[in-house]
């Protein structure tokens, strides 16, 4: 029995990351209809926009779906009210203290998963009553942990520290990486960058093309003094690098970042001045495909590898 499948009432233990500007109702419903857990990314939505996406997602799928909710969002209370009123089945919280809202969600019958970047925070999430933990390694795109712990090191460390279901994230894009995550102790995986490069993703087509054109070393973790974020190299990212070389203060970095940089890049397609958040695994992506194909191909490869490894290891004393 797979605990993640049982907990979330999904066919496959694959969760779509709630990436800001990329995870609208079309992507979430497509993933859920394919057997995974689709996720609406609330971090880029005003309350009325979130409500619209939840309602459209409900019309597009009868399966379980989630809302990703950064707890540092200014209008988080409004978001929580909307999530509860609309009976969203699952909430994935991040960037904040899960103990503040977990019990309220659970009293409404909502499962709570919390994203962490270290074993220490995984233990805190468990103590806060979260139903499961998503441990996200340094390879992941978007906002990241300050510890810079890779998925390979993070997952077994977290597995040893908690007893609730564990979902691995960071650098996972296919059946091979899913199999590796399971070998390390995970019972499910979350994929973000792979779902950015799908037909249903709300990311701008120019950003999608930049993602599938990315090569090794084309992303970097930066802006740790503000909030660590992994960016795809472009003129804006080069400006950030130059600012560091010139000894920029935190205030100067904040001024450079400004407002709506992520929307400008990922949603509006400004490849010059926009902030392009994506994971290291982008260097392995070379095509756009429907979300359903991502799910089906990942599970096919995972199951094939499972059988292959079992047969090979059976001959080893």
- Roughly what percent helix? 40-55%
Structural class: alpha/beta
**Judging by the overall fold, what is the CATH architecture of the largest domain?**
Alpha-Beta Barrel
Largest beta sheet: strand ordering: 1-9-8-6-5-4-3-2
Q: What is the CATH level 1 assignment of the largest domain?
A: Alpha Beta
Largest sheet: 8 strands, parallel
- SSE string, helices as H and strands as E: HEHEHEHEHEHEEHEHEHHEEHHHH
CATH T-level topology of the largest domain? TIM Barrel
> What is the CATH superfamily classification of the largest domain?
Aldolase class I
Task: Quote the beta fraction.
Answer: 5-15%
End-to-end CA span:
27 Å
Secondary structure: number of strands: 11
Shape verdict: globular
Q: In angstroms, what is the radius of gyration?
A: 19 Å
What's the oligomerization state? Answer: single chain
List keywords for this structure.
317 residues; alpha/beta; 2 domains; 8-stranded parallel sheet; 3-stranded antiparallel sheet
Short description:
With 317 residues, the chain is of the alpha/beta class. The chain folds into two domains: 3-202 and 285-308, Alpha-Beta Barrel (TIM Barrel); 214-281, no CATH class.
Provide a descriptive summary of the structure in words.
The protein is of the alpha/beta class and 317 residues long. The protein has two domains: 3-202 and 285-308, TIM Barrel (Alpha-Beta Barrel), CATH 3.20.20.70; 214-281, no CATH class. It is 43% helix and 15% strand. It is built from 14 helices and eleven strands. The chain has helices at 3-8, 25-33, 47-60, 76-85, 102-107, 119-127, 151-161, 175-183, 193-196, 205-213, 235-245, 250-257, 261-267, 291-313; strands at residues 14-16, 38-41, 65-70, 90-94, 111-116, 132-136, 142-143, 166-169, 188-191, 219-222, 229-232. The strands form two sheets. It has an eight-stranded parallel beta sheet with strand order 1-9-8-6-5-4-3-2. Strands 7-11-10 form a three-stranded antiparallel beta sheet, covered by helices on one side. Helix 11 (235-245) runs antiparallel to helix 12 (250-257). The longest helix is centred in the C-terminal third of the chain and has 23 residues, at 291-313. The two termini are 27 Å apart. The mean pLDDT is 93.
